[in-house]
Amino acid sequence: MERIGLVGLPNSGKSSLFNALTGANVPVAPHPFTTTETAVGVAHVADSRLAALAAMSASRKVVEATVEVVDIAGLVAGAEHGEGLGNRFLAGIREVDALCFVLRSFADDAVPGESDPLAALGVLELELVLADLASLEGQLVRQQKAARTNPAVAGVLPAMEAAQAILSSGVPLYRSALSAEQKAALVPLFLLTNKPFFCVVNLGEDEVAGAGEVLAPVAAELGVHATVLGVSVELEAEARALEPEERTELLVGLGLGEGALPRVARALFDTIGRWTFLTTGDKESRAWTFRKGARAPECAGVIHSDLQRGFIRAEVIRWDELLEIGSWSAAKAAGKIRLEGKDYEVQDGDTLEIRFNV
Ligand SMILES: Nc1nc2c(ncn2[C@@H]2O[C@H](COP(=O)(O)OP(=O)(O)OP(=O)(O)O)[C@@H](O)[C@H]2O)c(=O)[nH]1
Ligand SMILES: [Mg+2]
To answer: 314 forms bridges with which residues in the sheet?
Structure first.
């Protein structure tokens, strides 16, 4: 399962977002360092395509894609030197697939802290750089020693030394000119600024309408490095606590459409290069995540290894075409189901049936 780690300053709304995403109930309070223990939860990714197909097939079971979310303590300037809760808790997100920076924009006198997402980004970046530098330097000494007796280890040293120089100058690795190969060589070191990430700017209710203006400086600062989303975390968390119909009513009433949580999940999938394919039938409709660019047998393997091993072909139709025709059998009769072989690159939103033989 894909994993995402939330990072941000205290009182930025990380735990509120965690609760909204996972349905958990970890402590949320208007004082810094409410979170002292790392929490892990599972978020179900609402997907309107899946819901529509499940309704079409009258599926008895609907299985959404899931994402694991990790909520950690708030990070402050000087955490590297023990300020606040220090930075040891970053170990809890070292192995996630992507980070989500939670940047506070909402203003609330009852909640201590700044409401300046750009300044928060600067603080976060520096603390992540310092944490990476400390972690890298420890690993570098070990690798240099190992390389003396085992030349195979030496291969990664140039990338590590280049990374050390970059981090020492205060620059996160994602902003650096390291090549894709160098970045890939560094992946096993679990450096935080070498991970894909996106930003959630936590908007005040009054900022939702003019979100574009609030997000612009953060988006400009990050450029191509990350997607920036505006989310009113508190509204989303309130909506999450309601029954589905009331939830939709509240969100639509506030002009928030399906709500921001599906957007957050999609941003995660985009950030780590994952797409979704669907399967549908009367027994079950299900969303599956797969590596963008994967061919049909690899996707079959996401369902079950037998389907990959014994893969014969995939029957494929885009979810919206299938929905328009109304059923798999009607689509088949109309010749709309494509037969695809081993080389077919599965697309986001494809509906699949795998033919296999083991
Ligand atoms: N007004 C307003 N308050 C919010 C919003 N999001 C979170 N809060 C409040 O801000 C306070 C802190 O929220 P948390 O979710 O605990 O923040 P956190 O980032 O987990 O904080 P730490 O665990 O201390 O690092 C709580 O009182 C929340 O109710 C928001 O969008 N608007
Ligand atoms: Mg918290």
So the answer is: 340, 354
Residue 85's contacts (CB-CB under 8 Å, 6 or more residues apart) are 33, 36, 73, 74, 79
Q: Report CA(318)–ligand 1 centroid distance (Å).
A: 40
Domain 293-356 CATH superfamily: Beta-grasp domain (3.10.20.30)
Taken as a whole, the chain contains a residue count of 358
Domain definitions of the chain by residue range: 2-115+191-270, 293-356
Q: Topology of domain 2-115+191-270, per CATH?
A: Rossmann fold (3.40.50)
Cβ neighbours, 10 Å, residue 205: 11
Q: What is the pTM of this model?
A: 0.92
Pocket, ligand 1, Cβ cutoff 6 A: 8, 10-16, 28-30, 32-35, 73-74, 106, 108, 111, 202, 204, 232-234
> Among 276, 357, 237, which residue's Cα sits nearest to residue 63?
276
Beta strand spans in the chain (E): 2-8, 39-45, 61-63, 65-71, 98-104, 197-202, 228-231, 274-279, 284-291, 311-318, 338-340, 350-356
pLDDT single digits (tens) 49-86:
999 999 999 999 999 999 999 999 999 888 988 888 88
Q: Is 194 left (phi over 0), alpha (psi -120 to 50) or beta?
A: alpha
Q: What is the pLDDT of residues 190-221, one digit of tens each?
A: 999 999 999 999 999 999 889 999 999 999 99
CA dist., res. 234 & res. 270, Å (int)? 24
Of all protein residues, the one whose alpha carbon is nearest to atom 13 of ligand 1 is 13
